[in-house]
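C-alpha cells
________________
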Amino acid sequence: MDTISETKKRPGRRFRPMQIISIVLLVAGLALSAWWILQWVMASPLQPVDSEHHHFGVVLVDSPKSVVEHTFLLKNTSDEPLRILKTVPSCGCTWAGPGEPYLEAGATMELPVTLSVKESHTLDSNIKVVLENNPPLVLWLSADGRIRDSLRHTPRSISIRRAATEGTLGIKQSNARLYIEGWDDTRPEEPVFDVPDGLEVEFFGWRLVKQGKKRVGTPDLYEGDLFVKAIGTPPKNVEIPVSLPSGQKTTLLVNGNVGLRGGEFNDRSWVEDEAGVSFDPVVPLKSGEPD
C-alpha cells in the first residue's frame, strides 16, 4: 500500500524552460530548412544576373502619364536549353518584351520592360517569364509616383455677375479653391496671382485636409480658399495666371466659356471638387458692401 501511495504521489515529468526553448528552436529550424529546400526545388533555372527587383525611385509624372524603362539581364543557370513561352505583366501599366524563344545553357539575354506611372503613389508591378517544363521567373518593378505640377483649382470658371439693384455698379465677388499635393510634412509655398485690371484676389492660406499615407506613398492634400472681386463691371472671359515659386502653375478663369462644345478655354488643371469637402462657389458679401 505504501508503494502504491508513493507511486501516485510521484510528480509527472515536467519540461524545464531551457528544454522548451530548445524544442521550439529545433522545430523552427526544421521549418526553415524545409522552406529553403522548397524554394530551391521551385526556383526557376532562368535567373537575373543582378536582382529580380528594380526600383525606379521617385518618378515625376507629367500628364497624362510618365513611362520609365529598365532592362533585366537574365541567365540560363541550368545545363540544358530553355524555351521561353511568353512574358505576362501583372497589370496594364507594365510592358515587357517577349524575350528570346530559346536560351542555351549558360547564356544570357536582355529583357526590356516599361512601367507607366499616372498618379502620386507607390506603384508595384511584376512580370512573369513563363518557361516550358520549368518553373517561371517573376521579376518585380516599383516606383514612387509624384505629379510634377499638382496645383489644381475649382470651379472651372468663376462666375461674377452684375447685381440686379439699380443705381449700383453691381460689384460682386465669388470664390474659388486651390488644391496642391504636399510631401514630407512641408506646407506649400504661397501662390502668386497675376491679376488683370478690374479684378482683385484675396487668398486665405493653405490648410491640410487629407493626410498622406507613407505606406502606400500617397501625398498630403492641401487646399486654399480665395475671393475674386470685380471692381466695376464684371469682365468676361478673363484669365488669372497662378504660380508657385517652385514652378507649379494653373489658371483661373472668370466668366469664361467652358461649354463642352465650342469652349474657348482648355485648362487641364481644372478638377472636380474633392469628395467629402464642402465647397460653395458663391460667397456671401461682407457686411457694408453693396449687394
